[in-house]
């Protein structure tokens, strides 16, 4: 029996149900989904178990994370989650081009814990690999009009920048403006628990 390499993130238990509710509304039941920065793999397995028609491709640049994802998939005995692949969003080629187009690309708590260049790479990849009408789903805290929406987000931003000066809570306007350059248009923002947002972009305009 292979070793259990599952990792656990406390935030997942708090946000997975609200995220699932948004994805249920946004995705076709048989959607082909690419997740960027899957981390431990808890979101991937939770969503795929709740929506068994999905074809979910997890990814993460970190080997320990990919081992955790594989362990979660084996533990949950899921057949609709593919083996995790190594993707750095900043790369021009992600290695999954042969499976494109995707119905959705999902990035949960990614863009703030990465350099801005990773956000730009994510938007570029979404523009290349989503089908027309497909969605890019982002989840996490965002600034609006250059201001934090809650003291807790400001404190989180400061803690991120203390760890890495290139990290930080992004301004939604900046993300929206950069997305347009890749044919992605802001479709909807959904208020989520703990002062987070679900932000949904559509490739080529509204579906």
Describe this structure in words.
- With 207 residues, the protein is α/β, with parallel strands linked by helices.
- It has a single domain (10-203), classed as Rossmann fold (3-Layer(aba) Sandwich), CATH 3.40.50.
- It has helices at 10-26, 42-50, 63-76, 116-129, 151-163, 172-180; strands at 32-35, 55-57, 102-108, 130-140, 142-143, 170-171, 184-192, 196-203.
- A 6-stranded mixed β-sheet has the order 2-1-3-4-8-7, with helices on both faces.
- Strand 1 (32-35), helix 2 (42-50) and strand 2 (55-57) form a beta-alpha-beta unit.
- Helix 2 (42-50) packs parallel to helix 3 (63-76).
- The chain is globular and about 45 Å long.
Helix-strand blueprint:
Layout: H1 10-26, E1 32-35, H2 42-50, E2 55-57, H3 63-76, E3 102-108, H4 116-129, E4 130-140, E5 142-143, H5 151-163, E6 170-171, H6 172-180, E7 184-192, E8 196-203
Task: Give the CA-based shape.
Answer: globular
Summing up helix and strand content along with how strands pair, one would put the structural category as: alpha/beta
| Sheet with most strands: strand arrangement | 2-1-3-4-8-7
Order of helices and strands: HEHEHEHEEHEHEE
* Biggest sheet features: 6 strands, mixed
User: End-to-end distance, in Å?
Assistant: 46 Å
CATH-level-2 architecture: 3-Layer(aba) Sandwich
The average pLDDT is 95
The number of helical segments is 6
Helix content: 25-40%
Identify the CATH class: Alpha Beta
Tell me the CATH superfamily. Vaccinia Virus protein VP39
Number of strands: 8
- Domain count: 1
Which consecutive residue ranges, at least 5 long each, have pLDDT under 50? none
> What share of the residues does DSSP label as strand, in percent?
15-25%
CATH topology label = Rossmann fold
Radius of gyration: 16 Å
């Amino acid at each position: 029996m292979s070793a259990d390499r599952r990792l656990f993130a406390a935030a997942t238990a708090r946000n997975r149900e609200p995220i699932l509710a948004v994805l249920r509304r946004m995705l076709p039941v048989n959607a082909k989904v690419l997740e960027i920065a899957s981390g431990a793999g808890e979101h991937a397995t939770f969503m795929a178990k709740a929506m068994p028609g999905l074809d979910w491709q997890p990814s993460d640049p970190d080997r320990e994370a990919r081992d955790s994802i594989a362990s979660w998939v084996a533990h949950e005995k899921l057949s609709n989650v593919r083996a995790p692949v190594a993707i750095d969003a900043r790369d021009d080629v992600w290695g999954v081009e042969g499976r494109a187009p995707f119905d959705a690309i999902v990035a949960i708590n990614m863009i703030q814990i990465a350099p801005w260049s990773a956000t730009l790479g994510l938007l570029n990849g979404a523009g290349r690999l989503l089908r027309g009408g497909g969605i890019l789903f982002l989840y996490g805290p965002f600034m609006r009009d250059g201001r934090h929406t809650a003291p807790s987000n400001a404190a989180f931003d400061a803690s991120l920048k203390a760890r890495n000066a290139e990290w930080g809570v992004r301004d939604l306007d900046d993300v929206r403006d950069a997305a347009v350059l890749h044919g992605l248009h802001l479709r909807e923002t959904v208020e989520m628990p703990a002062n987070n947002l679900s932000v949904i972009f559509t490739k080529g305009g509204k579906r």
